[in-house]
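Before we proceed, please read the two lines closing this message. Tell me what the token row says about the fold.
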Amino acid sequence: MSAAPTRSAMRILSLGAGVQSSALLMLAVRGEIAPFDLAIFSNTGWEPAKVYLHLARLEAIAQHAGLEVVRVSNGHIRRDALDPAHRFASMPLFTLGPNGERGMARRQCTGEYKIKALKREVRRRLGYPHPQRVPDGVHAEMVIGISEDEIGRMRQPDVRYMRHAYPLLELGWTRADCLTWLDINGMANTPRSACLGCPYHDDGFWHDLKVNSPLEWADVVAFDKSIRHGSARANAGGHPLRGQLFLHPQRVPLDEVVLRPKQPQARPGCGPWTCASGYPSGEGRVA
């Protein structure tokens, strides 16, 4: 006997509030792609102010169209990293060993602060919150904003109750196509979504933050100094880092970096399944 066919209980947009996912939301509310039952924004608590402003704009548009947008969270990534009582979900920080060894810390932040919260909400919406088992054959279709120029970022879900879908690939759109469409349809200046203190930012981002958002610049400079010798929890437990951590690949304090912004490049943002990992320097990672 053949297995029973699976059925999609919901069609959900993974909303990062960056370029591609914003284009998908707008396409759906305008009826140009299949509609969504729900859009979920996984909130790390530390996105740039302009991302939250843009998200509020998307929420208003979605509400007018009858589409629910929900914000979910698994904690505040900045506060948790500096809390001695909280487990440190490692960020891909640049490391400098005691003998000058250069590497990167393991990336756990996306899974901890985006995917966990999203999975929890999907289970709840399907009617099977943890620890209940989601029956075989029941799943949500999770729509992800990956465009043709980022096809290498596609990932398969690691749970049976989700199936990934990529409408931008079906349309044959690139990130530039999304930007053009958003500009034409009244959504110019859609920001790139990523935490303020993400080590994958390039010098263009840091320079823009320093010049145009001094309060946010001061925030990331202070964070960079705070994580220099490892996690607050490890230090409080008497296990200091053998070496140092930095936000910038030059491995000097962020406010001492000589920033060299290049011609603007279309760098990807950070969504639950689309983290901008694979730093272009090609430097190795360390645990």
Remarks:
- The chain is about 35% helix and 15% strand.
- The first strand starts at residue 7 and ends at 14.
